[in-house]
Amino acid sequence: MDEILAKKLRILADAAKYDASCSSSGAPKRAAGPDGLGSTTGAGICHAYTPDGRCISLLKILLTNYCLFDCAYCVNRRSSNVRRAKFTVEEVVTLTVEFYKRNYIEGLFLSSGIIKSPDHTMELLTRVAKALRRDHGFRGYIHLKSIPEASPWLIEEAGLYADRLSINLELPTEASLERLAPEKDGASIQGAMAQIGGRIAEAKAERRRFAPAGQSTQVIVGADATSDEALIRKSAHLYDSFGLKRVYYSAFSPIPDGSTILPLKSPPLQREHRLYQADWLLRYYAFTPDDVADATDDGMFALDVDPKLAWALKNRDRFPVDVNRADREMLLRVPGLGARAVDKIIKARRHTSLRLDDVARLTSGLKRARPFLIAADYRPAGLTDRLDLRARLAEPAEQLSLF
Amino acid sequence: MKARAPRQAPSPGPLRGRDLARTDAEDRPAPRAGAPLRTILLAPGADLAGFRAALRGLVAEGVPPERVAWSSGAAPELFGATEAPAAGAPVPLPRAVADLVPMVVPHRDPERYALLHALIWRILRGERQLLEVASDPLVHRLALMRKAIQRDLHKMHAFLRFRRVPENAGTERFVAWFEPEHHILEAAAPFFVERFRALRWTILTPEGSALWDGAALRFGPPGRREDVPPGDGFEAGWRDYYESTFNPARTNLRAMRAEMPKKYWHNMPETAAIPGLIRAAGARTAAMIEREPQMPTKRQPARAVAAMAEQDPTSLDELNAIIRRTEPLVPGATQAVLGEGPVGATVAFVGEQPGDQEDRQGRPFVGPAGQLLARAMAEAGLVRGEAYLTNAVKHFKFEERGKRRIHQKPTAGEVSHYRWWLDRELEFVAPKLVVALGATAVLALTGKAVPITRARGPFRFERFDNRFQGFITVHPSYLLRLPDEAKAEAYAQFVDDLRRVEALAQELAA
Predict the structure, then answer these.
(1) A350 touches chain B (CB under 8 A)
(2) pTM metric for this prediction
(3) Helices (H) then strands (E): counts for chain B
(4) Type and span of the H or E element at B103
(5) In chain A, what are the domain boundaries?
(6) Do the interacting molecules here have an ipTM over 0.85?
(7) pLDDT tens-digit map of A302-331
(8) Portion 117-136 of B in contact with A at CB < 8 A
(9) Which fold has domain A3-267?
(10) Is the dihedral of CA B451, B455, B456, B461 positive or negative?
(11) Residues 6+ apart with CB under 8 A from B297
(12) Where's the Elp3/MiaA/NifB-like radical SAM core domain (chain A) (predicted)?
């Protein structure tokens, strides 16, 4: 690999790393054709982890970090003094294919600063995906960032080659967008999400290939004053209205050459973690947005207990729950019991009566679950209603970011 | 290669069985005092075939798990004379059990075969649904073993790194060295075949090797780390990427180590960067926070920012240029068929999609249906050259049958894809009346499926905010498909519709 390409790679990987999305999941299973390269397994693979604990699954780069937009939170905004570079379409294709052949990556996640015009930029992104699919028979994973300001037909063309499309909301409210991202417009972002959502649904019904891994988005946490509750309600809206696969939460972190209108302190990473847990409750635990709101204190999640535990502590009258009798929905509400543990409980109790030891084999969260459940040989007695229960179950204060 | 046949040694071996599960111990025959313990010797590693054969024999003979000592890995000679196992019939097992066995056999635990035998023993003695009882200690232990194998497979698929073998040009060859925790090479290899089918590659491990020559997968003797080339032209670039994608402000070593334990590091070139990244992270983060925001020195490109919005096509010609250079949504069409007729035409006709003739000539309504339309228009007093003619979908979609290309109706999703262009086109042409020919045109103009027979006649296309009036009639190709006896009447009705269109057009033009 020559030095110029390596230099561009360093700049354009650095510029892309603030996008939290790394997933290579959701694509239908595919295998390489006789002369082709690449497969997808469905679940996705993390090929390495960096010391920030994040996985490397895709080659996540920008086509260019030159940008005409001036979004305050973004390291690549036009008024930032970072070093700039631009890949050619062929360079991105080469990097993807050669990294892939060495089993470094699952595929490509390509985004870009806006150069010349949104249409011009969108066309370049699509050209990369097209070249990979056409010229290299590439069946690995491709995630393209869509540019909501681009013409609708260009956004849709991208879906023919990409597994996943995403448009980053970044800021959850219109007011914040206006203040921090003057060139962006909330209506056009949501319009493009609706458009992509519609095409994905139609293609699925007609068994055509169009972004089969769905669309996702990212919101920045802590760059404005939006509460956790508001963020979760926004996500619930995005899941319901546009059929989004994932909402990523990215705790705002200091960037080189930061803008003066950003807050000086970044939010604790634990806040981001709690948002993901709450998001999971929406998608896999049948919690409504109101339930999730109920788990907050004045709209914010506690940092020392997870949202499900927080909800249970506030709704103790609904516990303890009998693991040998309760329905699935109520078992899912028990802190410390994951969806998989619940399914195992439901299967196993058809054949046997579960004791506490049995439950211990099905979950690693028994400590949190104990005060909230009944087993064949166990009752929590007064534990459920103890005043100091929260203190007993809280996680020790720990700053995740220290090393 | 591996010795596959399991062997039995007559001499009693060490007792391997433990209390494998809390279970109906009373159902089991008590070990007869002095009864010889059966020792079954399997090939080293994951000897699935050997285990299966031995199990059949044991089940046929009714030998309980506590009477069997399983052994694998030692050279058969150590056991002296061996006799072939009694051949048994295949053992009927629930699907879930059959799926579990190959996921446990590769495990390094020497008790793996005994545990599986114990499980199958209980299943055959009345506990058919045993695997559903995930809380049972034996089931739980086997589930953990399966999980360990899945994780080991996953990590091998993730962390193995190929290096290119410097060779003559032509086919590329890659080699990797990997040390799995369990005996998973054979289970892991198909993944690499599916992924790197067009390449030639070898995977070396301390227990064996896998070789793909582009056509067949073979397993061979163990390899050595030294058999892999010392470097690769893209490794430095990969390390650059690894370093650049790390965010020092979020350092979280515990999370990294949980997913990428240190034991894998020495085979992953990028991990050499980790100590340096960790050392510098604190200072880098502090520098970012402490650094005063800088005034932007350059790049306030006011003109470029203003110009960026000027991307929309500003004329029908510009739009047509975009349509022309865009590939068909469904591959096959020769070319895009654009609308035809004067900008500012009073009436615009919207059809479905180009047919075979239209696709060849690159003009709308020139095939049989188009000719019929022209005839009907003439009879109704409409001049074809004064009207604007276009289609909802711009590319021909067909199925090949012999030499014929049979038209295929566009799906609703395809119509949606093309709708953006139709909308812009009608904006540029700005007709006073738009005539939808058939259901696809109506779908494109309304966004919903509307039954033609009921909606036939004047119609409001609400999506367009009254920019033009609307009219719905059948598509001329519908007339061509009718049986002869119905044709004349339907045609007359079609001409009738066009007369109403003509009258409306007169009114609107005035």
Answers:
(1) yes
(2) 0.91
(3) 17, 15
(4) helix B95-104
(5) 3-267, 307-393
(6) yes
(7) 999 999 999 999 999 999 999 999 999 999
(8) 129, 132-136
(9) TIM Barrel (3.20.20)
(10) negative
(11) A81
(12) 57-277
